Amino acid sequence: MIKFEFWYIVETVINVLILFILLRIFLFKPINKMKADRTRTIQDNLDSAEKAKAEAEELRQQYEDSISEAKEKANQIIMKAHEDAESERTAIIRKSQEEAEKIVADADKTIENERKRVLRQAQSEIADLAIEAASKIIGENVDDEKNRKLVDKFLSDEEGKK
């Protein structure tokens, strides 16, 4: 049969308590401290990761804003270039039209001057022929100066009637 000795049980309880106290002091406290340190380290790492994630998100947003702004500026530059090119094209066309109109006007003026010169030359030749014909018909040479004035007056009167 099993015998229980009182002092043996007390001694065993005291030994278990001493062992528990020693284990608690030398084993559980360091393990709990290590566990707390590890928990703190993990939490710090999680906090750092969360902070880094937030910073990365902020940087990503800044980069997206920068890219969006750059695209907008590029579009504005392109639009301005198109507007400048259009205004330059319009200016060149207007200048070309003005130059063409000036050339046409100069050509018209030159043609008119040439027409008048040819007309005067023709009138002069007609006057000379008329004087020569009149001289031959009359049989004598009348004063050239007087004849010339008469023919010029006649041609002027005819031109005025037109």
UniProtKB/TrEMBL annotation:
GO cellular component, one term: proton-transporting ATP synthase complex
Signal peptide, first to last residue: none
Keyword Cell division: no
GO molecular function, a single term: proton-transporting ATPase activity, rotational mechanism
UniProt-listed NCBIfam families: ATP_synt_b (TIGR01144)
Role of this protein: Component of the F(0) channel, it forms part of the peripheral stalk, linking F(1) to F(0). F(1)F(0) ATP synthase produces ATP from ADP in the presence of a proton or sodium gradient. F-type ATPases consist of two structural domains, F(1) containing the extramembraneous catalytic core and F(0) containing the membrane proton channel, linked together by a central stalk and a peripheral stalk. During catalysis, ATP synthesis in the catalytic domain of F(1) is coupled via a rotary mechanism of the central stalk subunits to proton translocation.
Name this polypeptide is given: ATP synthase subunit b
